Amino acid sequence: MSRIVYLNGEYLPEEEAQVSIFDRGFVMGDAVYEVTSVLGGKLLEFEGHMTRLERSLRELEMVCEISREEWLAIHRELLKRNELVDGGIYLQVTRGNAGDRDFHYPPAGTPPTVVLYTQSKPGLANDPKAEKGIRVISVPDLRWHRRDIKTVQLLYASMAKMAAEKAGKEDAWFVEDGFVTEGSSNNCYIVKDGKIITRQLSNDILHGITRASVLKMAAEAQMEVVERPFTIAEAQAADEAFYTSASAFVMPIVEVDGVELGTGKPGPVSKRLREIYLEESAKTAI
Ligand code: PDD
Fold first, then answer.
1. Which residue from 40, 149, 274, 277 puts its CA 20 to 30 A from 107's CA?
2. Beta strands at 134-140 and 171-176: parallel, antiparallel or unpaired
3. What are the transmembrane regions (predicted)?
4. 150 counts as catalytic
5. What is the pLDDT of residues 54-89, one digit of tens each?
């Protein structure tokens, strides 16, 4: 069955949704995005994702005059029309149709291109990978330096995922100046002697919405959190590791560059945080 997607004010069957070959998103990767998870037909962390979207737009001087209420109405309409239970909603805003290829931004007033669609993932919260834990390799972080802006320029992240797949592992961690920045599409953490260690916020990493919530929940559960960079060697000597993202929540990591962590099974802190996150985020889902 074809999905109903949203494009520039219209709800259309996916086959009918078309964007210009001159769209800045297509030609220049000039676009920002958000992924909001859906569990039981409800949106998780909606406000957080919209706040970050507004920030990404602002940082790139992109104008998109859609209010929070309108964003919510579009998300809800897509959930309804596609009868989505578990999965997510992908949202993308580009700088619009420039009329031709040009490095300069199109004139002020050029309307942005706005696309949203649902992605169904039945049983998303019960991903068997979370039971087993995943394995990561490290790769140099060769991305641009404004990783705090959620742009669609994801080619290097995609290359990193392919490198992990070729190595027979599930994901990749980026390393810069000897320290882990983040995962290919997630924020990462190690646990040592009960302390949760994760890189502090800066332009070096995406300010994960899941990260913010998980750190708050960890503190509320009396867990100690230290925000500082860590190395691969430290990760390999850690008791546990995990990553967070909107689409995977809290995902235990059991191996880093071929070295098994702790018992080689998801650790208690990762497992507990996953439970807490799923429980608590369901309470604020809308
Ligand atoms: N990725 N870091 C990077 C580089 C990411 O791409 C993501 C999210 C995160 C986690 O952010 P959040 O908790 O807000 O999802 C960190 C999304 C899920 C994606 O690209 O599909």
1. 149
2. parallel
3. none
4. yes
5. 999 999 999 999 999 999 999 999 999 999 999 999
